[in-house]
């Protein structure tokens, strides 16, 4: 039973469009919510992360929106580019050991 | 500064064989983790080591053992490999004060 549920499984977006990936969690003890980006044959790399004390965090074209009451968070990629084509994972972790639970992943394809 | 390195990159085993996956980090991180990645399942934590000398079970520890050899190295051992252990294995590390984890390039393991 996955503690973090991610949707959609796959997403196709035109270049310049907005990509939106959603995640939901159950355990209110989670206190750190990162998004990881993974290219084929590579390990996941941290893209952006948020703590539950803020509702939004923006870094360049990437924004996390966080809704604590709904226990949901999402990744928005503005002006999506073909180079953004990758698999994206949401995750959640909790102190003190920071053991992390991942969503199932979303394969994003940005068409030129 | 190589970050997190893993060996081997690929391995094929027969059912019942044993092997050890090696992981090393050069970032002076306290915490290290082993994950497996399966299609549609995201990454699932097998074992982690919060600090040198300690190890703890994650979500899916059955069939695996780990050794935190020193601060740099954390190995994962399969004593009697089974086809269900066919997966891509990732090692990660974090400095322990914060939750951000840095991943290695992965080991693709096939058990026939």
Provide a short characterization of the protein structure.
With 112 residues, chain A is mainly β.
What are the defining features of this structure?
heterodimer; A: 112 residues; mainly beta; 6-stranded mixed sheet; B: 112 residues; 4-stranded antiparallel sheet
Q: Can you put this structure into words, describing what you see?
A:
The complex is a heterodimer of chains A (112) and B (112). Chain A is mostly beta strands. Chain A has no helices and 11 strands. In chain A, the strands form 2 sheets. In chain A, strands 2, 4, 5, 9, 10 and 11 form a 6-stranded mixed β-sheet that branches. A 5-stranded antiparallel β-sheet of chain A has the order 1-3-8-7-6, with no helix packed on it. In chain A, β7 and β8 (72-77) form a beta hairpin. The N and C termini of chain A lie far apart (37 Å). The model of chain A has no long low-confidence stretch (mean pLDDT 93). Helix content of chain B is 0%, strand content 52%. Chain B is built from no helices and 11 strands. Chain B has strands spanning 4-7, 10-13, 19-25, 31-38, 42-49, 56-57, 64-68, 74-78, 87-94, 102-103, 107-111. In chain B, the strands form 2 sheets. In chain B, strands 2, 4, 5, 6, 9, 10 and 11 form a 7-stranded mixed β-sheet that branches. The radius of gyration of chain B is 13 Å and the shape is globular.
- Rg from Cα of chain A: 13 Å
Structural class of chain B, by secondary structure, is mainly beta
* Rg of chain B, Cα atoms, Å: 13 Å
Number of helices of chain A: 0
Mean pLDDT of chain B: 93
Oligomer kind: heterodimer
Structural class call of chain A reads: mainly beta
Principal-axes geometry of chain A comes out as: globular
Strand content of chain A: over 45%
Tell me how many strands of chain A there are: 11
Distance between the termini of chain B: 36 Å
Count of DSSP H/I helices of chain B: 0
Question: Which pair of chains has the greatest number of interface residues, and how are they split between the two chains?
Answer: A-B, 28 and 28 residues
What number is the mean pLDDT of chain A?
A: 93
């Amino acid at each position: 039973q996955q503690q973090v549920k991610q949707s959609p499984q796959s997403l196709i977006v035109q270049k310049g469009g907005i990509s939106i990936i959603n995640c939901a969690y159950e355990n209110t003890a989670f206190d750190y919510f990162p998004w990881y980006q993974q290219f084929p044959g590579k390990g996941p790399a941290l893209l952006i992360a948020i703590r539950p004390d803020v509702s939004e965090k923006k870094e360049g074209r990437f924004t996390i929106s966080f809704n604590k009451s709904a226990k949901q968070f999402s990744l928005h990629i503005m002006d999506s580019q073909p180079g953004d084509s990758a698999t994206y994972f949401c995750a959640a972790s909790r102190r003190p050991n920071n053991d992390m639970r991942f969503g199932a992943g979303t394969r994003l394809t940005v068409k030129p | 500064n190589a970050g997190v390195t893993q060996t081997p990159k690929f391995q094929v085993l027969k059912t019942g064989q044993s092997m050890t996956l090696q992981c090393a980090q050069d970032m002076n991180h306290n915490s290290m983790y082993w994950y497996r990645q399966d299609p549609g399942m995201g990454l699932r934590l097998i074992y982690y080591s919060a600090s040198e000398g300690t190890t703890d079970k994650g979500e899916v520890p059955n069939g695996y053992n780990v050794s935190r050899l020193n601060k740099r190295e954390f190995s994962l051992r399969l004593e009697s490999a089974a086809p269900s252990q066919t997966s891509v294995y990732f090692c990660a590390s974090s400095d322990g004060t914060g939750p951000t984890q840095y991943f290695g390039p992965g080991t693709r393991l096939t058990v026939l």
